[in-house]
Design goal:
globular, eight-stranded mixed sheet, alpha/beta, about 200 residues
């Protein structure tokens, strides 16, 4: 089964970004950083979700991110599906902090249960087929709105969302151009998907 071992964010200042991610989320080897001055404006077409077990952890991560220099895009609050909020890191990456639980069962442990990379795609059927042909297994599919692949074999899960829908979830306009500022590291080889997202071997 194809797996994602890490994502590499392309940032203007790797030292500052490294400090932000250590202070805000305590992220290590699953999120790597690479210097880049590639042109990029507006929505980059993806978000990263940190999925946790309860609201107190969302609040802890949310507060730490703001303190480290992130911008609030959506405040952390209850919704139909659970509890969560959205922040944008100083490097421009959008992070969703989410829990399916609306109630706390203990103190903030800062434990991150899942890292989910959500790609905003223009043609769901074509991109879904593209990834299935490269060895990913569909775990959930909701027509043209959302596809979730089985991420049990790697530390990062992959999901597909319609680009406009994902921008709405993130709280930003859907328009954007230039580099995604993202490289996906896994065991599927080197390729570029239909929406321009680049994959490379993670070793």
């Amino acid at each position: 089964m194809t797996s994602i071992d890490c994502i590499t964010l392309e940032v203007a200042d790797p030292t500052a970004a490294e400090r932000f991610y250590a202070d805000a989320f305590g992220l290590g080897k699953q999120v790597r950083l690479r210097g880049s001055d590639a042109e990029s404006s507006g929505f980059r077409g993806f978000t990263v979700s940190l999925v946790v077990s309860q609201p107190s952890i969302v609040n802890g991560l949310f507060g730490a991110a703001l303190e480290a220099g992130a911008t609030e895009l959506k405040p952390a609050k209850k919704s139909m599906w659970g509890y969560g909020g959205v922040v944008q890191a100083p490097d421009g990456t959008i992070w969703q902090l989410a829990s399916s639980s609306k109630k706390d069962t203990g103190p903030d442990s800062r434990q991150i249960d899942e890292i989910v990379l959500l790609l905003g795609v223009s043609d769901m059927a074509a991109t879904k087929r593209f990834y299935v042909e490269r060895g990913l297994t569909v775990a959930k599919s909701f027509g043209s709105k959302y596809v979730e692949f089985d991420g049990s074999s790697g530390p990062v899960k992959l999901s597909l969302y319609g680009r406009r829908g994902l921008a709405k979830v993130a709280g930003v306009p859907a328009e954007g151009s230039g580099s995604h500022r993202l490289t996906i590291g896994g065991d599927a080889g080197t390729f570029t998907d239909p929406d321009g997202f680049v994959w490379e071997p993670s070793a």
